[in-house]
Amino acid sequence: MRRQKPRANGRCSVVGATLAALCLLYPSAARAQLSCDQGFTRLELSHTGSVQEVQLGPDATTLIVRAIGAGGGSVDTKPGGAGALIQGTFAVAGGEVLQILVGGRGSSPAFGNGGGGGGGGSLVGIGASLGSVSPLVIAGGGGGAGRGDGADGGPGGVPGPTTPPSGTVGGGGGTAGGDGGAGDQNAADGEPGAVGGSAGEGGASTPGCLAGGGAGLNSDGGATTQVSAAIALLSGGDGGTNLAVPTFFGGFGGGGAPSNCGGGGGGYSGGGAGGDGDFGNATTGGGGGGGSLNNGSDVLNIAAFNGADTDGLVELCANGQAPVPTMPFWLLVVLCLMLVAAGRLAVAKRTRLAPALLAASLALAGCYTSRPVIDPSTKPPTQEGTVAGHVRTSTNTPVVGRIVRAVPLEGDAQAYETTTSNTGGYTMKVKPGRYRLEVALMQGEKLEKQPGETRIDASDLDPGQDFVIALER
Hints:
By secondary structure, this protein is mainly β. The chain has 2 domains: 32-325 and 370-377, no CATH class; 385-471, Immunoglobulin-like, CATH 2.60.40. Helices cover 8% and strands 23% of the residues. It is built from 3 helices and 22 strands. The protein has helices spanning 20-23, 329-347, 353-366; strands spanning 2-3, 10-12, 40-46, 52-55, 62-68, 85-91, 97-101, 122-126, 134-139, 293-294, 297-302, 313-319, 367-369, 385-393, 403-408, 416-419, 425-430, 433-439, 445-449, 454-456, 461-462, 467-471.
């Protein structure tokens, strides 16, 4: 898990206020979209393709979070769906750890040869590990565009009802993911778009077009024989990939992989994949947008905020100890050298250079980096690992509501169990050790494929522990 080195907000003192415009040229100068009040420090986190972890300062009590979902991939003139902006204010305790996923954009095919990938959702939550996180906000990513006429990707939505798809256009997310667009302007002429997930579940894939649904908080997006599943946000949030064309992919944060149809956007609940056209690839539909979640107060929720083909963003404002207005030693040395040079130029009567160098010195003195409220010190690792996978039939149909158990093979560790989601996915947090994974079978069923013994260490993520169930003959 990558730890994000904090970047503190730049600040101009009274000395440099008259030259504040020059502060914009200094690397630490503010370029905030989210404005922090006095006594707060701002931190911006960009898309990295991995989970980022930060820790609040020891006396932080209030945290403002703004998360922006990533845009879906565009196809020719059809734009991918725009990601949502979700902002809230939260009471926090000093030293709490934040787990952060910043969504990545979905792929856009060259020359329209394929659909657009679903954009990833952006998540901020509190917890020692990603699997144990308590979500604060989740901003849905946009769905990928299809190749059909007007087959725009559906936008990431705001908490509430979803927006119905319109012809080939993907539906907008709400709290649930948006449904995918149909495979033609007249839905009766092509495959309907797949259904978006609800209550933190992933969106469905389309069996005809074989595009993937976006992942939700708790479960993966729908997979097909052509695309891998987008992984649930709590299980790492990797986007799906087209197995035949790996350059077609869903964005980090649970974006669904495209085929010739658009992939669903990732989010609190995943968007559904776009439907197949009845008149060839040029009529395929766009993916639905991912759903969003906001557990804060003083909320600001904006659907379709981020542009297509654009990565997500997370911004934080946290209070804490007052920023320290001291100047780093290296900066003090640079200023002394600049002032000495300015004095020598003045003595030499090079009047044009001396005032300019003096002005630059004052501007640099006026811009200093305040002490961040993020504590980058090393913390002990989590004591649990995560095992995840899918349960499907031999015809690749998800098996819903089936019990999966992790039975310990050593020590006195307890057995764990969970049930599969509406995409057939499951995720379990377990203590370190060796386990045998089992799935409950119904009468007349047998296992065609099952995982072998697996060892889980602390902080491990062990995905791909899949079962395939067949009927006895």
